[in-house]
Amino acid sequence: MHPGIALMNFMPTLSAAWRDRNSLLCVGLDPDPTRFPAHLKGRPDAIFEFCSVIVDATADLVCCFKPQIAYFAARRAEDQLEALIAHIHEKHPGTPVILDAKRGDIGSTAEQYAIEAFERFKADAITVNPYLGRDSIEPYLAYRDKGVILLCRTSNPGGSDLQFLDVGGEKLYERVARLVDTLWNQSGQCALVVGATFPAEIAQVRALTGNMPLLVPGIGAQGGDIESTVRAGCTPSGDGLMINSSRAILYAQDGEDYAAAARRVAQATRDAINRYRRQPA
């Protein structure tokens, strides 16, 4: 464990959230001020206010939250991101926070990105690009209580440009899944990103990696199918997935009652997931 920064251990906390909240839903926090309710527009703390209200309305329905750093950094709102993660940890203990940053660089720079994610923002996990190989991942793995979630089969159409390339008789995304499972995950900290828009690939990654957690974007606004996602990726114990929905929940309603609307959509999404989920014994 990296000294001085532990708030929670990501993997057991995620497992507890799956079990105790009966939820595989991850709510993505992608704040776009142009879509905020009128009463928030122009407020200097609008991003924090919008996101924290959504968090408070949905925290009991989710297994984790996933703020996307670009939506904060583009508006010079990193301080509001820090405050938001602190708010989640203080008000909703036991709720892991994944910093969606998709970092990927050589080791010395990766060390700085790891400090940013885990010491500055105090996230519990981070999304990382594996393209530069094992040594670019090691600085994140040095924080033994944190999760490291590697891109594998992404939900965007252009992901196939590289991820479907043949590398020695297997597709590149399959090689990534196998490398992470067999060589990179010695400390049990790793998870993979596999998009809901490709359920056959979810099933393949699950077959290659056993019970490794999968972060699955692409339902809701991106059109991924909940039933196909759950049937392809759920583990025999009824968990193993963090199924992310962002815009469909955040912007369910543009009036002052946006939080209540977000809760209704989050609850409906969680319940839809659970209809197809193998329930734990």
Automatic annotation (TrEMBL):
HAMAP family: OMPdecase_type2. The active site is at residue 102. Its EC number is 4.1.1.23. GO terms for molecular function: orotidine-5'-phosphate decarboxylase activity. It comes from the Bacteria. Keywords: Decarboxylase, Lyase, Pyrimidine biosynthesis. It catalyses: orotidine 5'-phosphate + H(+) = UMP + CO2. Gene3D superfamilies: Aldolase class I. Pfam families: OMPdecase (PF00215). InterPro entries: Aldolase_TIM, OMPdecase_AS, OMPdecase_type-2, OMPdeCOase_dom, RibuloseP-bd_barrel. This is Orotidine 5'-phosphate decarboxylase. One of its GO terms (biological process) is 'de novo' pyrimidine nucleobase biosynthetic process. The keyword Transferase does not apply. Belongs to the OMP decarboxylase family. Type 2 subfamily. Coiled coil: none annotated. CDD domains: OMP_decarboxylase_like (cd04725). The lineage of its organism: Bacteria, Pseudomonadati, Pseudomonadota, Betaproteobacteria, Candidatus Accumulibacter. Pathway: Pyrimidine metabolism; UMP biosynthesis via de novo pathway; UMP from orotate: step 2/2. The gene is pyrF. Residues 24-262 form the Orotidine 5'-phosphate decarboxylase domain.
